[in-house]
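EI: anyone free to look at a 337-residue chain?
SC: sure, send it
EI:
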Amino acid sequence: MVRVPKLTRAEVAQAVRNPLQYIAERWTPSPRTVRRAAMSAVVMAVLIVVTGGAVRLTGSGLGCPTWPKCTDESLTATSEMGFHGVIEFGNRMLTYVLCAAVGWAIIAARSAKPWRRSLTRLGWLQFWVVMGNAVLGGIVVLVGLNPYTVAAHFLLSTALLTVAMVTWQRAGEGDEAPRPLVGKAVSQLAWLLAAVAGLLVAVGTVVTGAGRHAGDSSDVHRIPIDWKMITQLHADLAWAVVALTVALWFVLKAVDAPVGPRHRARDLLLVLMAQGVIGYVQYFTDTPEILVGLHMLGSCLVWIAVVRVLLSLRERPSAAAAVPGPAAERPEPAAAG
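SC: here you go
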């Protein structure tokens, strides 16, 4: 059996006062462990979006009609609430798994040697975004699935995904100042692509808010806008993103950019093509639930690919350690006497 070390009163006090420092002084994760911890937060950020979509698409948005309790009398879903209560309450419980993944990323970043304050701060930023989105999710329920709050809920989830991706990228880099790998004009084209992609995601939330999947079988308010018109705008923005991606890809090849940016632009184009196929099929088949769910997953993957394109345009090398000179070049000590 493994002996459990005895803790002194001072050690217990230290653990209670600053648990992260207490863990960091006794554990040093490998760089691979730190990056895997950061990736777990990315995976959970995507999963929480997909399961949130499942709540809406199954009409379970008000399966738990209040918040933070599931009902006025019960913290959890009851058998009388049926399938919808299980789906909604399950999604709420998944938030705790997301918090655990973010907490794991924070602990790993704080325990890494040397300690990188910037990486730890990114982990804490994820935590506060999760907390803010949890509160916003409660407001969504309390206001009866108002489409504007639902849209804000999704956009905040996209912000969480952005920070999680930056954390994962930074976990594999150094802390030196970023060095651009492409020229300023190419970088500006990439940022224009990101801006239009962000607008595409935002308009997508309006499409959802005006569409037929309200999230509950009750009379849920919808955004008073012509659905076909806003869907056409969404499609036009998607083609603009595709055009900018193709342009960026060719420009990167023309200027002989490093292989990393070129591959990231290619990956984004492939994800956009797959997302476009799903989008058009769901439009012409009256938005079946399974395809809408896949489209939400695709939205996350598109945004991840956009963030990776931006992050691939610069590098952050690790600080080079000082190398002592050869022994032959060192001055000899003065001889005694």
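EI: The chain is about 65% helix and 0% strand.
SC: 👍
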